């Protein structure tokens, strides 16, 4: 308890650990004055900067990027930040997602129904569409970073962890391409052909997530030593177990295949995925809208009911009521 920042302890009572990841853990906490439950993600400032890879050493700057992104985004399928503190470590206070991580719902033998996969995946697509529209690439989409709003199977999902995210700004290449290419080297024009495909890394990850939600096993794994995990990925050689996929619709598998395309310029984009037959499902979209409406209602405090105090004469006559 000693190590938490004073101003954080003034506002929150920190309780048990809910989950722990590579660079920190998630704690349950209670906001003192409202008694609401919150989650606090602790991001360790690695004590000895030397023991992490050089690219990880820019963590502190990344925390600013992440908090900047968390403060800017506003979407029902993206986690909401409540507070931020810096002390011995970084502390991000977030809304508590009662259902925990999607990762725990797709661990064998648990399997999600195709209907539930579709409800969850549709929300992930909306979330990533919003990020890409705002020039944000997540770059670390995985089952652990998809949180569930309740223990009910029919629930909202939210994407979290912007620790690896990147903001796409105006690039120097864009400026270069504004001018006439009289003196421009061919390799710059060649490179321009693939520039701006950063977003497609999120689409690949969504393909892996959908594969695992539907099948319960990973498309690429180090289990089969040959070919190596890297070779499987770079060749787009995912593991297809007929026994598992025979019970899953052709549309669902077709969508997975269109994401797991090695060439980023040929990989399905978010907009195209939202048009895919598997997601033209009115019932699923209606369920999502209902879940959304429920949260909106919860947001507006319901009017306190004015109850008739006990014993007072009723306004209407008994017989009229039965009339
Ligand atoms: C209710 C529950 N569990 N319930 C239970 N166990 N009851 O006994 C529960 C709830 C939430 C979670 N996870 C959770 O909230 N993750 C999470 C992960 C990452 C981040 C962020 C912002 N990361 N940013 C960076 N840079 N990271 O490195 C925020 C939240 C797990 C279990």
Can you describe what's shown?
The protein has helices spanning 6-11, 59-72, 114-133, 172-178, 186-194, 200-215, 229-234, 242-245, 250-259, 270-274, 282-299, 318-322; strands at 12-21, 24-31, 37-43, 81-86, 90-95, 100-101, 136-137, 146-148, 157-159, 166-167. With 323 residues, the chain is of the alpha+beta class. The model is unreliable at 318-323 (pLDDT under 50). Ligand YCF is lined by residues 18-19, 23-24, 26, 39, 41, 43, 66, 92, 94, 97-98, 100-101, 147, 160-161, 163.
List key phrases describing it.
single chain, binds ligand YCF, 5-stranded antiparallel beta sheet, 3-stranded antiparallel beta sheet, 10 strands, 37% helix, alpha+beta, 323 residues, 12 helices
In short:
With 323 residues, this protein is α+β, with helices and mostly antiparallel strands. Helix content is 37%, strand content 15%.
Which secondary structure elements does this structure contain, and how are they paired or packed?
Elements (H helix, E strand, L loop, with lengths): L5 H6 E10 L2 E8 L5 E7 L15 H14 L8 E6 L3 E6 L4 E2 L12 H20 L2 E2 L8 E3 L8 E3 L6 E2 L4 H7 L7 H9 L5 H16 L13 H6 L7 H4 L4 H10 L10 H5 L7 H18 L18 H5 L1
Helix pairs in contact: 3-6, 3-11, 6-9
The structure holds ligand YCF.
